[in-house]
Every structure is written in structure tokens, then in C-alpha cells.
Automatic annotation (TrEMBL):
<dbReference type="InterPro" id="IPR010982">
    <property type="entry name" value="Lambda_DNA-bd_dom_sf"/>
</dbReference>
<dbReference type="Pfam" id="PF01381">
    <property type="entry name" value="HTH_3"/>
</dbReference>
<protein>
    <submittedName>
        <fullName>Helix-turn-helix domain-containing protein</fullName>
    </submittedName>
</protein>
<feature type="domain" description="HTH cro/C1-type">
    <location>
        <begin position="20"/>
        <end position="74"/>
    </location>
</feature>
<dbReference type="InterPro" id="IPR001387">
    <property type="entry name" value="Cro/C1-type_HTH"/>
</dbReference>
Length: 134
């Protein structure tokens, strides 16, 4: 338990929330749009996406329907057991915030050739290194 008396979100709740946010933003929906479809406030959607509140089975089903995916979409990449990555994949990074920019980067990068992708990746790594040393 944390100092606030609340238990921290479980990895599965963080992962599912992240997948909801990614899909919602990739379709251009706001948290209010999703909230209206689910009959809840945008603040509750925020709590779902952050993993602060767990999404009930019925709300997850409604979310999947609204976002045009199967319920399994939200668990993709989570893996078996204790919220670890698929055996052949890297561990899921729960700390990186999902933003419109990060989704756009992810959408645009496959359109670049491999050399361009390497240049962009090197630039991003250098920017991260510069930030850490500042």
C-alpha cells in the first residue's frame, strides 16, 4: 500500500488503460466522446486510462464496441502471468505518457525507409541523452 493508503495500479490495469487511450486517440476521439458512449464522465475515462480505476467487464465491452475492436485488443502485448511482456517481446513501458505526438510518430515511422528510421531514432536518443545530462 502507498503512503496515501491506496494501492498502486496493477500492471494489467495500466496496460489496458494505455491501450484504451492509444486506440481512442488514434481514432480522433476525445475522453468526452468515450465518456458519453459509456454513460460516464470524461474524468472517469481519465482514471481508466491512467489505471487509477479498474474498468469493469461491461464497460470494457462497451469501450471495445465504441472503439471498433475486440476486448482482446486491450490485452494484446501484455503476455501471460504477472503483466509481463510476451516471451519474445520487450517489457511494456508503463511510464511513458501516451500523447497525440507519440501516436503520430508511431504512425509515421513505418512510412520512412530503414535509414530514415535509424536517423530519427538516433536523434531521439540523442535528445533523451542531452535531457538527462542537463
Amino acid at each position: 500500500m502507498s503512503l496515501t493508503g491506496r494501492t498502486p495500479p496493477l500492471p494489467v490495469d495500466l496496460h489496458v488503460g494505455r491501450r484504451v487511450a492509444e486506440r481512442r486517440m488514434s481514432l480522433g476521439h476525445t475522453q468526452s466522446d468515450l465518456g458519453k458512449a459509456l454513460g460516464i464522465t470524461f474524468q472517469q475515462v481519465q482514471k481508466y486510462e491512467r489505471g487509477t480505476n479498474r474498468i469493469s467487464a461491461s464497460k470494457l465491452w462497451m469501450t471495445a464496441s465504441f472503439l471498433g475492436v475486440g476486448v482482446e485488443y486491450f490485452f494484446s502485448g501484455l503476455g501471460q502471468g504477472l503483466g509481463l511482456a510476451e516471451p519474445d517481446g520487450p517489457a511494456f513501458d508503463y511510464e511513458a505518457p501516451v500523447t497525440r505526438q507519440s501516436i503520430e510518430i508511431a504512425k509515421l515511422s513505418p512510412r520512412l525507409n530503414i535509414d530514415q528510421q535509424r536517423l530519427v531514432l538516433d536523434l531521439m536518443r540523442q535528445m533523451k541523452t542531452d535531457e538527462a545530462s542537463a
